[in-house]
Amino acid sequence: MALPNAFYAQSGGVTAVINASACGVIETARKHADRIGKVYAGRNGIIGALTEELIDTSRESAEAIAALRSTPSGAFGSCRYKLKSLDANRREYERLIAVFAAHGIRYFFYNGGGDSADTCFKVSQLSKAMGYELQAIHVPKTIDNDLPITDCCPGFGSVAKYVAVSVLEASFDVRSMARTSTKVFVMEVMGRHAGWIAAAGGLVAAQGIPVVILFPEIVFDQAAFLARVDALVKEHGYCSVVISEGCHHADGTFLAEQGSRDAFGHAQLGGAAPVVANMIKEALGHKFHWAVADYLQRAARHVASATDVKQAYALGRKAVQLALAGHNAVMPTIDRISDVPYKYRIGVAPLSKVANTEKFMPRDFISADGFGITPRCQRYLSPLIQGEDYPAYRDGLPAYVTLKNRAVKPKLPAFEIQ
To answer: Which of 226, 229, 245, 346 has a CA-to-CA distance to 336 between 20 and 30 Å?
Structure first.
């Protein structure tokens, strides 16, 4: 009797360490070759399952799979595609089960954020309703750090490190030029509803850098913001501002809203930095520079947090172990034990309590004036950016791996995504 196969897919915005989770899944599955046959990866996420574009990871060498641990982005391709409810689009769910059945897939590992947790949960429910034995395990990933239950999310520690380092270095630059040139540097970071990434910029205050943080959790108050910036410039001669893309007015409109929406139905954001930079120029007259970190913050594997890499791999490994232990519709988690020394264990949470739930910054992580982080937040963030895990370099550039990604031959008729 043939061994059951596994399906792994990456979803949503990729990170500096999502491939480390993929490495954890695939290497662990290979160590259990007596219980798991092949690991197929979906080309471009869940879309690869729907279109039956299954990559045979067994055709990749052990060295190539190991190199995923130090390679950013999504090695198999990702997607922003949210499955609708079973009632709204039953044909897609039935197609998934048909593809899984055709290729002997009994394990489903979906690596993504909140929407992916929802998809994983739906697939687990559908397979049960259809009488198809399938174990669905969600592997957490999101730079936004907004998944519930888990203490932190793989991808966040590295983007937090990148943001903190970038703000620190840019602030040194501004400080050196402030007497006759730029006095304010504004950096926009990701974070639609939760300000975890922006909060990381506040870590530079420990080195004496004057910084103002604008969180999605705090309604934007233009007068108070300008007063704070002006006070810091008068005191220090310069300051830096870190603004989350999700910063919004009292009526809920984003400073950076473009009027369009992404594939998940979220408002398309981008451009908050020039908005506040121009406010500063018009109201205070200070010369400024601004930057939008955008893809740079989530792709920066060269400055990844060693803690983050280790956790990303561990959660991929744990996902396979949970599946082999008979679990279904669950997600492995990071459970913090202590801040100093930093200790944690790998736990597990039911997807019914993870899907469609966001974790926001606690109010006591944000300073009373709403423009900085508290010591408690600093204690939370600091362990997550610790350690360096540099990739190998060749000719002065990181030597990242590109997989062959050879697909198996389809067994079913073509399927058109509607």
So the answer is: 245
Whether residue 231 is found in the same domain as residue 374: yes
Distance of alpha carbon 143 from alpha carbon 247, whole angstroms: 17
Q: For strand 397-398 and strand 393-394, is the pairing parallel, antiparallel, or unpaired?
A: antiparallel
CA dihedral defined by 406, 409, 412, 417, rounded to 10 degrees? 30
pLDDT (tens digit, 9 = 90+) per residue, 178-222? 999 999 999 999 998 999 999 999 999 999 999 999 999 999 999
State the average pLDDT for the chain: 94
pTM of the model: 0.94
Question: Residue 157: in which H helix or E strand, if any?
Answer: helix 156-177
pLDDT tens-digit map of 359-387: 999 999 999 999 999 999 999 999 999 99
Same domain, 316 and 377: no
Q: Using DSSP, state whether 290 is helix, strand or coil.
A: strand
The answer as to whether 363 is a domain residue is: no
262 assigned to active site: no
Q: Which of 144, 146, 151, 389 is catalytic?
A: 144
Q: What is the pLDDT of residue 257?
A: 67
Same domain, 250 and 381: yes
CB–CB of 158/301 below 8 Å? Answer: yes
* 25: in domain: yes
In the chain, the amino acid numbered 374 is T
Residues 160, 196 contacting (CB under 8 angstroms)? yes
Instruction: Give the domain range for residue 101.
Output: 5-142+304-355+390-398
What is the rounded distance in angstroms from the CA atom of residue 51 to the CA atom of residue 44? Answer: 10
- Other CB atoms closer than 10 Å to residue 223's CB: what's the count? 8
